[in-house]
Design a protein that fits this description.
single chain; 362 residues; 14 strands; elongated
């Protein structure tokens, strides 16, 4: 009997102590952080079990961490209140700490670990608003010349002189694609020039929603230049919902109508080369732009002008000269200069000192 008692005493575990819990800071809620002081027998335990209760009577195991670890996070419901206790575990033995609580979680308005993002947002907003203000005041804002967009007037004029139409494709993207949105901004400006020169305009579309939006944009463009009567409701039309059927349909249009200028601006896939090659064979001036990197080589090879990278997104500001768009583009360019400068300075500091420069950007 004495031996059994001695073995039981020798095998007894000391429980962890100092248990505390709190709402995990800087998160979106649904999380409570639990901390405790390790058991004096930490070297001999298998680990620690985290037990949780909503009534401080019936506990359930919700987690386990290895020895030497004194912190964990528990996934919770924000509307619930919880009690916690920690158990040191060795084989079948358990040594429980007293329960603590209640604790509850909630969503935070701001993450204190994201100050660098807040500072970047404020600085970026300042420069964009500043340049929009300057543009609206009539100040001249320099934007690098984009050859493909500078050729739009010549392309429309050439089509007018030849008595041929202009073909504009917005690609195969949906209405929420960035390239499609950029193309919708451009199609309105191209339609304005067609209205001014009284040039026939053709715009086959791939997506029903894109068709509806582009039709209204083109219609508005004709009204803006004072020629609503020149707008042809059949100039913007739905063609097909299959990529190859769409490409085949456009190739047929090019063969029959023989447009003087083709615009391929938007999101394109494997059909890009078919369209561009057919257009080149028809002898049309072709201006292309897409954010699909794998299709850019085909457009560069077969088209006269290609909008590469951010040129596609800056195109609407470049053509329209709208102060809001120009200011945003100029502000973004200035922010890029600041980012490049910070990268250079950070690289030098990281190379010549032991300061953990990358920790500032986490």
């Amino acid at each position: 009997m004495i031996m059994i008692i001695m073995i039981a005493v020798m095998s007894a575990l000391a429980p962890p102590s100092g248990v505390k819990a709190y709402d995990t800071p800087g998160d979106g809620g649904s999380s409570i952080t639990i901390e405790w002081q390790l058991s004096p027998d930490d070297e001999d335990v298998d680990g620690y079990e985290i037990h949780r209760s909503t009534d401080n009577v019936t506990f359930e195991k919700v987690g386990f961490v290895g020895k030497g670890i004194a912190q964990t996070e528990d996934k919770t419901k924000d509307i619930e209140r919880y009690f916690y206790r920690i158990a040191a575990v060795r084989d079948t033995a358990r040594a429980y700490s007293p329960s603590h609580g209640p604790f509850s979680s909630s969503a935070q308005w701001f993450s204190t670990t994201m100050w660098n993002v807040l500072i970047g947002f404020i600085v970026s907003s300042f420069f964009i608003i500043f340049y929009i203000y300057r543009a609206r005041k009539g100040r001249s804002l320099f934007i690098r010349k984009i050859a493909g967009l500078s050729a739009v007037d010549d392309a429309v004029g050439r089509a007018t002189e030849m008595g041929k139409p202009i073909l504009y494709s917005l690609g195969l993207g949906q209405i929420d694609a960035i390239a499609t949105i950029a193309s919708l901004n451009i199609v309105g400006e191209v339609a304005k020039k067609c209205a001014e020169f009284e040039t026939k305009f053709l715009c086959p579309t791939f997506d029903p929603v894109v068709y509806t939006v582009s039709r209204e944009i083109v219609k508005q463009s004709y009204s803006t230049v004072g020629k609503p009567d020149r707008y042809d409701p059949n100039s913007v039309f739905y063609l097909a919902a299959s990529s190859m059927a769409y490409a085949s349909g456009i190739c047929g249009i090019m063969t029959r109508e023989r447009p003087a200028t083709n615009f391929w601006i938007g999101s394109f896939g494997a059909e890009s080369l078919i369209l561009a090659e057919t257009g080149a064979a028809m002898g049309a001036i072709q201006i292309a732009g897409t954010d699909n990197v794998t299709q850019l080589p085909f457009f560069i090879t077969a088209c006269d002008y290609t909008l590469i990278g951010e040129e596609l997104y800056a195109a609407s500001a470049y053509i329209s000269k709208e102060p809001l768009l120009l200011g945003a583009i100029k502000g973004e360019d200035f922010i890029k200069v600041i980012i490049v400068g910070l990268l250079l300075v950070g690289s030098v500091i990281g190379l010549v000192t032991k300061f953990q420069i990358l920790s500032l950007f986490k």
